Write the structure tokens for this entry.
Amino acid sequence: MDLQLAFNLAVGIVAFLGGYVLNSISKRIESLQSADTALTEKVHKIETLVVGEYVKHSELDKLGEALFKKLDKIDVKLDGKQDRQ
């Protein structure tokens, strides 16, 4: 067997194996990218759900006003009961 032929065979085998490894790595990267895209979409859905459930500032102000009105009514009633004694 000629030395040039052995060298060509060795380079061919190395190139074939290198191509196989690169193709395998490329497929794995693509699957990871699709999994990352799916996870990103899930996070955005959860983020939207959580943001939608927060109490808005205006609603909290209304709630605070209603609570203070009730507390004022209770205070007036307690003062009235205290005056009766």
